[in-house]
Amino acid sequence: MAVLEQRLLYYVTVLAILLLHCSSFLSAQIPQNYSSTANISTTWINHPLPILNSTNLNTATPILIRGLGFACGFYCNWDGKVSSRDCVFGVLIYQNRFSLPDGYSLLFLQFPQLVWSTNRNNLVQPNATLQLTQDGDLVLANSDGTLVWSSNTAGKSVSGMKLTEMGNLVLFGRNNEIIWQSFDHPTDSLLLGQQLAPGQQLTLTASVSATNLSEGLLSLTISHDGLSAYTESNPPQQYFAYSFYDYPAEFRNGSFGGMDIPPASAAQFMRFGPDGHLKVYEWAGSNWLPVADLLATDFGDCGYPMVCGRYGVCSNGQCGCPETTNSQAAFFSQINFRQPNLGCSLVTPISCDHSQYHSLLELNNTYYFAFNSSSYAKKIKAEDCKNMCLSNCSCKAALFSIDPGEKTSKRKGSCLLLNEVFSMTNHENYMGLYYNTTLFVKVQNHYDKPSRHKIVILAYTLGAFFGVFFVIGSCLVIFRHRLKESNEIEGDFLDQVPGMPTRYSYENLKAATEDFSQKLGEGGFGSVYEGALNDGIKIAVKCLDGLGQVKDSFLVEVKTIGSIHHVNLVKLIGFCFEKSHRLLVYEYMANGSLDRWIFGGKQDHSLPWLTRKKIILDIAKGLAYLHEDCSQKIIHLDIKPQNILLDQHFNAKVSDFGLSKLIDKDQSRFVTTMRGTPGYLAPEWLNSEITEKVDVYSFGIVMLEILCGRKNLDWSKNEEDRHLLNVFKRKAEEEKLQDLVDKKNEDMLIHVEEAVEMMGIAAWCLQGNYTKRPSMSLVVKVLEGLVAAETNLDYDFTNSSVVRTFGDQRQEADDVAASLLLPSALSGPR
Ligand SMILES: *[C@@H]1O[C@H](CO)[C@@H](O)[C@H](O)[C@H]1NC(C)=O
Ligand SMILES: *[C@@H]1O[C@H](CO)[C@@H](O)[C@H](O)[C@H]1NC(C)=O
Ligand SMILES: *[C@@H]1O[C@H](CO)[C@@H](O)[C@H](O)[C@H]1NC(C)=O
Ligand SMILES: *[C@@H]1O[C@H](CO)[C@@H](O)[C@H](O)[C@H]1NC(C)=O
Ligand SMILES: *[C@@H]1O[C@H](CO)[C@@H](O)[C@H](O)[C@H]1NC(C)=O
Ligand SMILES: *[C@@H]1O[C@H](CO)[C@@H](O)[C@H](O)[C@H]1NC(C)=O
Ligand SMILES: *[C@@H]1O[C@H](CO)[C@@H](O)[C@H](O)[C@H]1NC(C)=O
Ligand SMILES: *[C@@H]1O[C@H](CO)[C@@H](O)[C@H](O)[C@H]1NC(C)=O
Ligand SMILES: *[C@@H]1O[C@H](CO)[C@@H](O)[C@H](O)[C@H]1NC(C)=O
Ligand SMILES: *[C@@H]1O[C@H](CO)[C@@H](O)[C@H](O)[C@H]1NC(C)=O
């Protein structure tokens, strides 16, 4: 429950920011038409505005905007902490923007991607300033005035700054000549059309992770000769190299230095990611999707330096620690056993003062990515290679590769000493590879433990104490063991309870889904695959993404969700909880999700009246059960057509209920709800009292969507028709609600009146004041015709109620948002 509350606070805070902004812009009037150039002697202040994106809620303060393409400005990472707002100044690529449909002039940049920045290692806070000074220097200073970054162009007769069509931020002189440009100082991305000047060499450095923008361990150097990717260690370890030969070092439409890229059908950019891949992303209408991976290694995902963290062993995409053959000593432990990809640490760190206790762990069939051949020692024996490493304390491992054709008995080959050990690759399972390599990893044996002789004496003299300690010690060990294994124990417990979901092994589910080959869909939590159990029963398997987000109490929650049975709720049949795998097994729903049937636009896919009516009633019953009849009230929080599934007889079932409890903090889910559909959220998100009535509101929206056969927010429509609620309000005022009824199916034509009547129930569910909305059980009764619907309704669903609620709650909202250091005025050229 605590997590749920945390989540709610989260939602509330974010909504509060949103609305605070809305209110300030209602009076302040955001400059809708940004310019793409600026003059000297201009200062901008960082006042973060929210932007929506499917995995992160980030904020941006645009400064220059170049059409639908690029913006430069402040960009802030929302890391989930209410108190911190870490921002960079940089260039964003974006392909979609919108203002809230209800007349707010707040501008949202949708799915922007940061492609350049000045200060990712030295983040700034709200109120930081960017100044293009009188003498032509572009200066970034933090809110306390400290200098963070400068273009060092003072006195070089800069006369202005512009953002070009390619996304290049340029300081230009009197004759429009380039004095300084961001293209000369790339961070981790390249833009279409970007090319190297003669003799130029550029280095991209990947960020630490998707959420931490700081420079990470991996770099990529691009010159006219080619590119080289390596770790930022001393010395660097190279994991990829490519020669451009006669090709230009330019990111063109279709190629990059001779490497093929799919021709751009929409905007593209190239990013060197924290995972060490160099990917080309293309705008796919609602998202950026990778279309090419330019650094492909022979070992697939296992061939990258940080895929399994330091000292991690990658085997078929799974991470583990180096295995020890002699069972008594484990030299490595997982840094976080729930996140094996974070790597392993040495149980005893290597100490140069005790080098006599060093030994080398022999890892057969292990490949290491570093192949920078110039630093190999050639034609030496394995023993010599080992000794070279043992006698040199800065050596942490030696990679030995048998020369091709060399007799194995002689074991002569090349030897590479490594100062740092990143991820290793177990290639036992890779067929047809010619890498004959063994990795010798240095470990530290215990050096401070007393000799056996001493222990024997001690045992004699302190026999009694020893016994006592032994008992206590064993208890502790057992206790710790149980703690560690508690998941397993819980799982066993689950196995024994009849009616509870079955526990499956990952192998089982892999077989059941034919290696996850039939994808049914993708949701906010992960992908869903079709499968069949041994007895032929069809199943849908949901793989929960994001290891870090799945809560520890997975099994407890599975138990709760698994114990809920209702004909209008999708049944959880089983689950898998194994290593990094978290999967849920559901009953298979032949007709998929509701959105396919109501937004399809195709006639043969459109539903007749009685089916729609039944679906609406089914959803209402499912929700009424969750809200009122379960031992513990469950608020779904994410009711939308994608989460309503239909069986072969078009019985509707609510899915994904209770999943909010499985996911920690859960940023992604929040924004999934927000993405493109701000209208799905009930206005009282601002109020800290979140009740099951938020589901009633979302249900109202879904009901309206079913009746009208269109999405709540439909970007293909003109501005005034884009938001269904606005149209609904307008048509209600004009008393022309019949215009809204979906007439794709002829059967609907004879039921227009009933549909309009039902819109009244939807309007009731959508009341801005949540206390005026009916409970789901009342909705069921009304739909069944047992009770009459409320008719005294307010059709002003979005703006007025939101703003009014906001006005009433201002103090509270301010309290929530106070720690966010929100702006009170709008930034802009001064
Ligand atoms: C913004 O520019 C467009 C044309 O480019 C114009 O129609 C619109 O009125 C301008 N808006 C404002 C607020 O100046
Ligand atoms: C910059 O200055 C020029 C004249 O010096 C003026 O025409 C132009 O409007 C100014 N631009 C902005 C964005 O202020
Ligand atoms: C959202 O933003 C994050 C970080 O800026 C990025 O990694 C992610 O790819 C973005 N998601 C989409 C769908 O653009
Ligand atoms: C930013 O400036 C505003 C107005 O000048 C002020 O109210 C607010 O406290 C400042 N925030 C920070 C973090 O300095
Ligand atoms: C980001 O990564 C850097 C370098 O690893 C680290 O120093 C910093 O603390 C990280 N920042 C956050 C917010 O985790
Ligand atoms: C090998 O690595 C060194 C740095 O350790 C670097 O100077 C050299 O260019 C690399 N050689 C190749 C062939 O990449
Ligand atoms: C890229 O090239 C293809 C043809 O090869 C063309 O259809 C497409 O419009 C080009 N894209 C851009 C962004 O220039
Ligand atoms: C590795 O292989 C060698 C020779 O093939 C063998 O002598 C050695 O015992 C193996 N080591 C391990 C740990 O399996
Ligand atoms: C020790 O090994 C490192 C590489 O790991 C190498 O650069 C250094 O020259 C070696 N020192 C000696 C004395 O061999
Ligand atoms: C690799 O080593 C094995 C024995 O360990 C040997 O049989 C094989 O011929 C070697 N492969 C090459 C290409 O040298």
TrEMBL record:
Residues 55-184 form the Bulb-type lectin domain. GO terms for molecular function: ATP binding; carbohydrate binding; protein serine/threonine kinase activity. Residues 1-28 form the signal peptide. Keywords: ATP-binding, Disulfide bond, EGF-like domain, Glycoprotein, Kinase, Lectin, Membrane, Nucleotide-binding, Phosphoprotein, Receptor, Serine/threonine-protein kinase, Signal, Transferase, Transmembrane, Transmembrane helix. It comes from Cinchona calisaya. It is found in: Membrane. This is Receptor-like serine/threonine-protein kinase. CDD domains: B_lectin, STKc_IRAK. Residues 352-439 form the Apple domain. Its main location: membrane. Residues 514-787 form the Protein kinase domain. ATP binds at K542. It catalyses: L-threonyl-[protein] + ATP = O-phospho-L-threonyl-[protein] + ADP + H(+); L-seryl-[protein] + ATP = O-phospho-L-seryl-[protein] + ADP + H(+). It holds the Pfam family Pkinase.
